[in-house]
């Protein structure tokens, strides 16, 4: 009984489903872009303000980061203690109630933080806070 090997069919890939999905996506994006154009068609006159004032007259808190090696960083800028003194003098001259938050690295010597606190005292900063992290159970 000989095997019939003459009629081997080539494998075919049915792309009908994929073409349907592509057409649905095209229709979806066409409809979506028409909605955004329709929203822009409204003739709206936006209100104007003459002189907008901030909601409060309080300045933002100054955050001083003290790294493990003693570097003092304010706003992504490394400062010496003298530069920090000048910056704080300027701020307390403008805002008497300027708040300073000192974030010291827990691995560094505490003397670095005390030095920054001394600079704050010389600049007559009244509101000084030390940032800390609450210890979670298991740490």
In short:
The chain has 139 residues and is α/β, with parallel strands linked by helices. The chain has helices at residues 16-40, 81-94, 110-122, and strands at residues 62-66, 72-74, 77-79, 99-104, 127-130. It has a domain at 62-130: Nucleotidyltransferase, domain 5, CATH 3.30.420.270.
Would you kindly provide a written description of the structure presented here, covering whatever features stand out?
The protein has helices at 16-40, 81-94, 110-122; strands at 62-66, 72-74, 77-79, 99-104, 127-130. By secondary structure, the protein is an alpha/beta fold. It has 3 helices and 5 strands. The relative contact order is 0.11. A 5-stranded mixed sheet has the order 3-2-1-4-5. Helix 2 (81-94) packs across helix 3. It is elongated, with a radius of gyration of 33 Å. The mean pLDDT is 83. The longest helix has 25 residues, at 16-40. It has a domain at 62-130: Nucleotidyltransferase, domain 5, CATH 3.30.420.270. The N and C termini lie far apart (78 Å).
Which consecutive residue ranges, at least 5 long each, have pLDDT under 50?
Answer: none
CATH structural class of the domain at 62-130: Alpha Beta
Helical proportion? 25-40%
User: Looking at the structure, what is the overall shape?
Assistant: elongated
Distance between the termini: 78 Å
Number of strands: 5
Strand content: 15-25%
- SS-based structural class? alpha/beta
What is the rounded Rg? 33 Å
Going by CATH, the architecture of the domain at 62-130 would be 2-Layer Sandwich
Order of strands, widest sheet: 3-2-1-4-5
Mean pLDDT: 83
The CATH topology of the domain at 62-130 corresponds to: Nucleotidyltransferase, domain 5
Query: SSE string, helix = H, strand = E?
Result: HEEEHEHE
Separate helix tally: 3
Please give the largest β-sheet: 5 strands, mixed
